[in-house]
Amino acid sequence: MGGLWGAMGGLWGALGGLWGAMGGLWGALGGLWGGSGGLWGAMGDYGGAMGGLWGAMGVMGWNRGVMGGNGRLWGCIGGVMGGGWAVPDPPPIAGDTSRGSHCPFMDLGGDPPFVQRAPPEVQEDVTPPETGTAPSPIPIGDIGTGAYSSPIAPSPPAPLDWLMELMETPKEAPPERALEDNLPDGAFPYTALLESRLAALRSTHAYRVFTAVRRRAEAPPLALGGAPQRPLQLWCSNDYLGMSRHPAVLRAARAALSAHGLGSGGTRNLSGTSPVHEALELSLAQLHQQPQALLFGSCFSANDTGLGTLLRVLPGCEVFSDAGNHASIIQGILRSGAPKRLFRHNDPEHLGELLARSPPGTPKIVAFESVHSMDGSIAPLSELCDVAHAHGALTFVDEVHAVGLYGARGAGIAERDRVLHKVDIVAGTLGKAVGAVGGYLAGPAPLVDAVRSLGAGFIFTTSLPPAVAAGALAALRVLAGAEGRALRRALQRHARYLRELLRDRRLPVRACASHIVPLPVGDALAAQRLTQVLLQHHGLYVQAVNYPTVPRGEELLRLVPTPHHSPAMMENLAGERGAPPGSSCSSCRRPLHWALMSDWERRHFQGEAVPVGA
Fold first, then answer.
1. Do both 528 and 413 map to the same domain?
2. Which residues have C-beta within 8 Å of that of residue 484, sequence separation ≥ 6?
3. Would you please indicate which residues are annotated as catalytic (active-site) residues?
4. Which pLDDT does position 174 carry in this prediction?
5. Residue 136: inside a domain, yes or no?
6. Which residues of the chain have pLDDT under 70?
7. Are 366 and 351 in contact (CB under 8 A)?
8. How far apart are CA 120 and CA 123, in angstroms?
9. In three state form, how does the secondary structure of 28-66 look?
């Protein structure tokens, strides 16, 4: 396969052409780009003439790999500029060690103050080669054909016994270390301050203790957890429809995992964009009938970065935020420094009053959630959008707890209410009904492009793994079809049934029309004890929601029945809680949250109201 350029030496070959090895302008013996001391040559094998683009390819033969003699990028460039098209390496010069340097700045002369020479064992995690022994190149396989051969012999596939053993092995106590160990006397007491803050959380029962569970993908909503391990029923998962273990989702994720590997490899701008990412963004844009969509690592980041970036870009922009908004929206507003106004939760009239005080020409954004994450209330989305637009404000709607759960295709409350066109910016998640992880924004092209180009939380973050993106794509396809509609109907039926059961037990379940079933408690300690009893004595994992997720005094149990919870499971949950909790608790006489209950809830608790479905 020597070809015209190979066997004959080529027009620029060894016979002394313009770029020839014997003294061409860029020749190997000292030209600026030369192979033996020039800027590229000084980087070791990077600039050798054998790294030439055509020489490395065997003159169009692909026998040495696309990138040159040693497969290095600079070898390709250095060969084209220095060694010509098909010029062989010049013979080594006795005593010449310039090729051994890996830093061009060291070979330019002198010792710059910012550079220190170090032996090989310091520069790399390798042992120095023996004198007179050249290091062996690492085989890189045939890049041209896509094959890959590792220099390390692959280990045979092994079962995941080590992982199971790791999960079941008792955790060793970590070594003790204080922040002040490396500080002089008189330094700030970091440890004491942090411990005092944590002690304050414990004293108010707001300190968070995680419960480790092993979800059973083959049998949702079951899991293993507790100490010792025992079967559990999950009642607090945000995997609302069980899509994380859907066969189509798992197949897509496995295929992408085999094709692309575990991670994405970089930020979106640095090799972290794959066709899977682009396909997912297109699918999300189409779902919400928006021109563009943009993926984030989480919806917290989407809200924080998206809203914060827009508020900074729009000069003098004011933001009008629902009083019940999620922490991610609040964080984005605070970080932007924009003037903010709070309107009462889901109150279009109060929003209109606040907007009327803002000058007509001032840019404005109204931000709210379509389904509230904790109390389960559904916003009057159409009315809020109408009020915002009447005063020249854009709408930023968080559909995190609605995507996949409402609407004919699962686009959320805006689709259910047929007002997709009224939403200017929509934020959604892949980590709840979709069953994956990640978040996104969708909206007009200039808006999305501004966040893509200016949002630090997007620019400097590694993109989602392709396997996650592929699984999310598969989940969206399922949710947009007949199976997705059947799952949504089952979810709503189960939520209504659980509310009826709890009300029949005279428990003050909060009335709402969403899939979330909040049970107010109103006291952090009582909520904590309730969850402990349910978990330890009944195998029911119900999570207490305390401050700062909800305001102090509004602590609650957040119940989420899924399509996979059976009626018997729901009856068991309501029946266990219907029994008197014990003399140490006053809930059986008057709830601790009595002052927070509505008149309807009080009448219902006293037996004056007729149990009805939500």
1. no
2. 241, 404, 409, 410, 478
3. 432
4. 79
5. no
6. 1-160, 576-614
7. yes
8. 5
9. CCCCCCCCCCCCCHHHHHHHCHHHCHHHHCCCCCCCCCC
Tokens standing for residue 137:
């190149």
Q: Could you please report the per-residue DSSP string of 495-526?
A: HHHHHHHHHHTT--PPP-SSS-EEEE---HHH
* pLDDT on residue 118: 57
This prediction has a pTM of 0.71
Decide if 541 is inside a domain.
yes
- What CATH number has the domain bearing residue 529? 3.90.1150.10
Q: What span, in angstroms and rounded, lies between the C-alpha atoms of 503 and 552?
A: 24
pLDDT at residue 456, rounded to an integer: 95
Tokens of 426: 């929509």
Q: Going by DSSP bridges, is the β-strand pair 364-369/318-322 parallel, antiparallel, or unpaired?
A: parallel
> How confident is the model over 465-520, as pLDDT tens digits?
999 999 999 999 999 999 999 999 999 999 999 999 999 998 988 888 899 999 99
Secondary structure (DSSP) of 113-131: TT-----HHHHSSSPPPPT
Calpha distance 235→242 (Å, rounded)? 12
What is the signed CA dihedral for 455, 457, 458, 463, rounded to 10 degrees? Answer: 170
8 Å CB contact between 506 and 498 = no
Both tokens of 88, joined, read 């062989």
DSSP code, position 544: E
pLDDT of residue 12: 41
Q: Is residue 199 part of a domain?
A: no
Can you give the residue range of the structural domain that contains 63? 1-127
DSSP state of 548: T
pLDDT at 103: 54
Q: Which of 446, 479, 512 lies at the terminal end of a domain, its last residue?
A: 479
Q: H or E segment at 558?
A: strand 556-559
Residues near 507 by Cβ (< 8 Å), separated by ≥ 6? 519, 574, 577, 578, 605
pLDDT single digits (tens) 124-171: 444 444 544 444 443 433 434 444 444 445 555 556 677 777 777 777
**Tokens standing for residue 418:** 């047929």
Whether 498 and 441 map to the same domain: the answer is no
- Tell me what pLDDT residue 582 has: 32
In a domain, 520, yes or no: yes
How many domains, in total, are found in the chain? Answer: 3
398 with 506, same domain: the answer is no
Both tokens of residue 1? 């396969």
Q: Do the Cβ atoms of 53 and 64 come closer than 8 Å?
A: no
Give the model's pLDDT for residue 114.
Answer: 52
Packed helices 381-390 and 348-356: angle between N→C axes, nearest 10 degrees: 10
Task: Determine the pLDDT at residue 271.
Answer: 95
In this structure, are 60 and 10 located in the same domain?
yes
Spell out where 181-229 has E strands. Answer: 213-215, 222-225
pLDDT at 262: 95
